[in-house]
Design goal:
alpha+beta, eight-stranded mixed beta sheet, 15 helices, 17 strands
Length: about 475
């Protein structure tokens, strides 16, 4: 009888915790502001035609960087007249727009204007030429339309229109536009952050690119999810080298260097770094729980009992798995010089995207312990990059971003998110505890595949709503 009573109580507790929750109010009207749609689309198209490929990458041309700088000044004269502009790292642009109350900490909006090149030979796969800025079928097409000139143009359209209406920000605003985000931001955002630090600036918050408004992100969930990045993963690449006797392939040993390396890679690949539902991932799941189907909501809200089941299910989806753990990706392999010669060494590189609970050093130790062979060496290619600081979700900065999203996109649910790639945002960690990453644009799987891929584009209607988002953000500072 006692066991039965305990079981009944447990079931009641689970059902109460599961609940239904509150979904977004689909009937709510989105806030709107005046936006010159044709102008915004035209200016984004113009920006795309300047091939601002990252320095040091095939296709880089400094003339395009300089042309972009001149174009920005011509297109947005009010900001250039009201703000102080500083050139950093030769091409990056840092604007300071004074606010009414200088006792308030400034805020910083960031974007980057460098782009990755188009993969040679794929130009013909584009529906519109990749640097044309073509406006066709309601879209602006071209490299950078989303990553990240779309954000930059939306920010500039918002601030320029507000300045034209007599706007003065209540707090000082910085606009930081980097020229080398795609290669790490060492000469752009890193140096802009260093300048601000040298000037004694402490920021209230930073908002850069990162999460998006995800459409059909989860099976059975039709509600769009606005993912606001509150942290981003680090990265480390390990070199794994196997050694064995060389010689002629007619008399091979039982374990050649290639076979030993294959075994080591298999060991690493089949022993992923442990996962957990904690930190950012727990925040994300708690935020989306109200819109999940019952069975999924039951697991999310009763992690004390079902965390193992939850991890097992989430690990099957690459995107969800990347939020749970440090990921493992063999990316390079090299061995041998001739078909009938046994190489004495075989080398592979495995890239790990480091979760905030791990470090590059801990990952190196983990892999070394897993392989545990005197015939295999494991070493970091470089020092790697730590995961960023995790920003809070219970402060004024996050609340401002969340409220702005809810006003402009009332149909979505807002959720904190772990950005699995790298952004310029991490370079500002030393200036504030509040660093956030969000692109106010809806995207489904096909749209996300356009990042760094073929047929990058943005709908003009989405560009307009992005401008409205930044306008509303400025007005609610």
């Amino acid at each position: 009888m006692l066991l039965a009573a305990i079981a009944i109580v447990a079931v009641v507790v689970i059902l109460i915790r599961t609940g239904a929750g509150a979904a977004p109010d689909a009937s709510a009207e989105a806030v709107t502001h005046s936006v010159d749609e044709a102008q915004a689309a035209r200016r984004l198209a113009e920006s795309i035609r300047m091939r601002t490929i990252s320095p040091g990458v095939v296709g880089f041309d400094p003339e395009h960087m300089l042309a972009f700088r001149d174009w920005l000044a011509r297109s947005y004269p009010l900001l250039h007249s009201r703000a102080t502009r500083t050139l950093v790292g030769e091409y990056s642009l840092l604007f300071e727009l004074p606010g009414e109350d200088l006792s308030l900490k400034p805020a910083l909006l960031a974007a980057h204007f460098d782009v990755v090149p188009v993969v040679p030979g794929t130009e013909g796969d584009w529906e519109q030429p990749p640097y044309s800025g073509a406006q066709v079928d309601g879209f602006v097409w071209g490299r950078g339309a989303i990553d990240d000139k779309g954000s930059l143009v939306a920010i500039m359209e918002a601030v320029e229109s507000q300045l034209a209406a007599g706007y003065t920000p209540p707090r000082t605003l910085y606009f930081a536009f980097g020229h080398d985000e795609e290669i790490g931001g060492a000469d752009g955002a890193m140096q802009m952050a260093a300048k601000l630090a040298a000037d004694g600036v402490e920021l209230a918050w930073v908002l850069d690119e990162g999460g998006v408004i995800g459409i059909d992100v989860l099976a059975g969930v039709s509600t769009p999810i606005a993912t606001v990045g509150i942290a981003e993963k680090g990265s480390v690449s390990l070199e794994i080298v196997a050694s064995a006797a060389g010689g002629h392939s007619s008399m091979p040993p039982r374990d050649s260097a290639i076979a030993v390396l294959a075994g080591a890679i298999s060991t690493v690949n089949n022993a992923p770094v442990p996962a957990a539902v904690d930190g950012v991932t727990a925040n994300f799941l708690d935020a989306i729980a109200p819109i999940l189907p019952f069975s999924q909501r039951l697991a999310v809200r009763n992690r004390w009992l079902l965390e193992g089941v939850l991890i097992d299910q989430l690990s099957k989806a690459p995107a969800a798995n990347a939020m749970l753990r440090t990921t493992t990706a063999p990316t390079m392999i090299n061995a041998g010089v001739k078909e009938n010669v046994l190489p004495s060494t075989a080398r592979a590189v495995v890239n790990f995207r480091v979760h905030p609970r791990d470090t590059p050093d801990s990952i190196e130790r983990y892999v070394s312990n897993r392989i545990a062979s005197d015939r295999v060496s494991v070493a970091k290619l470089d020092e790697g990059r730590e995961a960023s600081v995790v920003s809070p979700v219970d402060g004024e900065a996050y609340a401002l971003i969340e409220q702005t999203i809810n006003r402009v996109f009332p149909e979505v649910v807002v959720a904190p998110y772990l950005v699995v790639g790298g952004t310029d945002a991490r370079h500002y960690d030393s200036l504030t505890d509040n660093v956030y990453r969000f692109i106010p644009v809806p995207m489904d799987d096909s749209d996300r595949a356009r990042f760094h891929g073929t047929n990058e584009r943005i709908a003009v209607s989405d560009l307009v709503r992005a401008v409205i988002f930044y306008q509303d953000l400025l007005l609610n500072l």
